[in-house]
Amino acid sequence: MAGAAETCLERSRDAVGTLVARNTAVLHQCTSQRVTKWPDFVGVERSMLAAGESRGARGDVGIVGGQRVKAAATGMHSMDTTLRGQLAFVPGNPVLPCKAGSASASARLPRVRRHAPGTAGKARRSSAHGGVPVGQRDGHRVLARAADARVQDEKAVTSSDAAVEWSSVRVRETFLSFYEKHPRYAHVRMDSASLVPSDPTILLTIAGMVPFKPVFLGLEERSCARATSSQKCIRTNDIENVGVTKRHHTFFEMLGNFSFGDYFKPEACQMAWELLTTVFGIPTERLAVSVFEDDDEAYAIWRDIVGVPETRIKRMGAKDNFWASGPTGPCGPCSEIYYDFEPARGNEHVDLEDDARFIELYNLVFMEFNRDAEGALSPLKSKNIDTGMGLERVCQVLQHADNNYETDLMLPIIEKAAQLAGKVYQNCDARLQTSFKVVADHTRAVMHLIADGVRPGNTGRGYIVRRLIRRVLRNGRQAGIDGAFISVLSSCALDLAEKAGYTNCREREAFIRSELEREEARFLMTLERGEDRLQEAISDAKLAKQVVLSGVIAFELYDTFGFPVELTQESAAENGLRVDMAAFDECMEKQRIRARAARESLDLTVGAALASFAQSVGESEFVGYTQLDIPSAAVRGLFVQDAQVDSLDEGQRACVLLERTPFYAEGGGQVGDCGILRLGDSQFLVEDVRKESGAFVHIGEMLCGSLKVGDAVKATVNRDLRSRTKAHHTATHLLQSALRLVLGADQVSQAGSLVDPTRLRFDFNSPRALSPQELETIENMINGWIQSGIPAQVVTMSLDEAVERGAIAMFGEKYDRNDVRVVEVPGVSMELCGGTHVSNTAEIGAFKILNETGIAAGVRRIEAVCGRAVVEFASARDSIVRELCGTLKARPEDVVERVDTLREELKDANKQLESLKKKLAFVMSDALLEKTDQCGPADFKFIVSSLDGVDADGLRAAAERLLQKLGTNSAVVLSAVNGEKVFFSGVAGKDAVRAGVHMGKIIGAVAKLCGGGGGGRPDGAQAGAKDASKLVEAQELAREQIRTVFT
């Protein structure tokens, strides 16, 4: 028996070795010929498998390169364990196992939910003893070592538990490695760009191609012919679908490969198909393809080269399958690859828009046309490829998840949120599961946004972050999570981000946590107050049998409580109401009108015509670092209000483009230079300089004479203003260094700056205000560096070298990786900067902080002056002190003490005045007792009257005094006209409240009638209004409402 077993073992070893050698040889031949279909390996000599056939067992069915393979069984358990783990995958030729006797390989990748807790672990443990079973080849189970997810050769589905094997880390790395190491079309792997794009026309990075947009539009030279990336993206246009559908997200990763004038349609289609079917191992019958309705070329490629059956190729219209960068410019057809969840339904009547059956996996954009203003298409000289495959979607497919959320990208956050709520996610109903999905999705989004420098705010990107955080908190509360929780969830999200390679999240962990916790604390307070007011409004609307919630109330919630109108809409919808958005928008517009500055100015910003011209003429030569005047600079172009002209006459305001210039263009926080352009007796005053597509645009006015295109002008920068500006710029660098030393480098990051001849302004992230002592320390530190006369150095180097040496980069700025300008004050400061600077710190003269204030949550601002501006500041302050001394008849050193004395005297006088007002109100209110009304079976008492000339505090005190005299079964509503304002104050005793009196509603109603608003509790409320003409009518309304309750 032992001899027979050894013989069987030897034959098994030989069979497997021969099989691997043969398959490898065939694979090599296939790869060299760039075939798109792998051969069928069924025809292996049956003599190799005698050991398996002798048992008479039928072989399992597997998939080799997308082809169905029938194989004989083998005595796997008798195989020597020395073979385990020694056999490697045949690269590019995965084996997908499926059960013996199955009708088709479509049994793979079924639509099932994620494994129940515990079962996945059992699947892993079953193969952990030596190797990972990867399938069947001609009766032999092939083994491979469990390797790191970053190994490129791990391309096959390596276990029947694909949900475990295809982790998101492995999927991402496999995609990037496939294109980076492609034998013929190797791509350059690009890191994900920031969610804050350099393109000012885009609020956030919404697609994988956004970082490459300038290349596609021809605005920048390409740095490589082919690129691949996993780009983090944010979209909020369909935020209401997040958590509701299976595939909508705010934050997602877009896997993409790009060709800039290199390969085109055939190669893009073949590589995409190879990746999905050969590398990811998705059966071909699970895939379908769409093409643009007129794109016969793409249709033929899929049918004839790739080999997709015509029944699985669908033509679709421009809405779905044609991409354009805008009304004009580059554009082209798309082709999309879909995954089929239900292939058993067959190929007849295939509808790719059936979301229940199909999910779009891979979108290929063929950028081959240019569209002109008339809509005509002409071929591009350089044709490009732009592709995108959502990581969340492909993970859903490969991990056999029911939706994108229940993959390893988000499920850990979901389950942590459910745990905090004391629930098991899998056991929750659909409503709770939706809330947990929203929490997980938005937590990822805000973590990455804050890591990329976006802080919660009320406008732009900041508003998006604030809105997402508030949706996290609201959905968490709805799901049953009590108290603060977002920091706990952010820890989970940070762990996932770090595993994905987003190291910036971990590096900014403290900052992310502090921002989230601060915003959470602020919103929870707002939420409680706003929710009370909202529920009161909803209850009133439902009692009145209304279906519309007042837009004015929605605006009040937004304006007074900071309650997002989206949350108001969601709460209203949950109660069967809709918000009157027209009224809300009207209130918003009135507010904008009130806040808008009532002045008009000439718009000299760069327009479309000038931008197009600037792009066509190319960059201007800037010589302003070393020269402040040049004798001859050719005029390239002239523009008046974005209209190109040939010449300028005296008095015209215009934009002048020069071939070379000493004028610094606004950038990096530094304002543009001022100066003069001269041509004989003609002079053009330069008031500002902007940069457009590398061309310097000089903005100003033709003072005298004329100027025409082609003239050679003398360009002279205002030396005094430049000198002041560069002193302030270098001082800004010193300020940032001092802040980092005093507060801690990890506690300070630049959030913006402004440098001009008169001052500097530096915005920075900080969780708190600086103390006077800290400001004094910073000021003294900077003045010490100035007095030391430290020479400044300016050098150029690669970005990597600069970062390695410790240079600080301004977040959000775009830098050339090969050539950056580094400004260093040795031992003090080193920053990447393109601005102008002093050559020695002594040139700054002196430094003085004017003020330190908060401009947003977590953002502080320091304003300061230096050089001659310090002298000017001191002179202005000295004049103020002299005037105060004269007015107060005090010496300078006694001014503070004299002011404190006057302030105390004023405070005492105000107290006496308030006391007299209250006494007067009491005297006047006692006379109102004669106007007491009674009603109802319990003899309820109430007073509705006026006390003119009394302020709001006196009115409240009078109402409370009257209530004390009337008793607990009474109510008092008083009003007072004070100037143009009307005040209301109402109080009710506890018995009156039990009877149904709600003073908050009564006061709110009467104030509204007089053009105001307000409210409060059932036992007490106040309000203000501005229309005293309706006061009598308002008082009658109050009486009517009180009588209604009492009777």
From TrEMBL:
Top-level taxon: Eukaryota
HAMAP family: Ala_tRNA_synth_B
NCBIfam families in the cross-refs: alaS (TIGR00344)
Stored PROSITE patterns: AA_TRNA_LIGASE_II_ALA
Compositional bias annotation for Basic residues: 110-127
Cofactor descriptive note: Binds 1 zinc ion per subunit.
Predominant location: mitochondrion
PANTHER family (alphabetical): ALANINE--TRNA LIGASE, CYTOPLASMIC (PTHR11777:SF9), ALANYL-TRNA SYNTHETASE (PTHR11777)
Region (Disordered): 106-136
Cellular location(s): Mitochondrion; Cytoplasm
Species, as recorded: Porphyridium purpureum
Subunit structure: Monomer.
Coiled coil: 896-926
Entry's family note: Belongs to the class-II aminoacyl-tRNA synthetase family. Alax-L subfamily.
GO term, biological process aspect, one: mitochondrial alanyl-tRNA aminoacylation
Descriptive protein name: Alanine--tRNA ligase
Binding site for Zn(2+): H729, H733, C833, H837
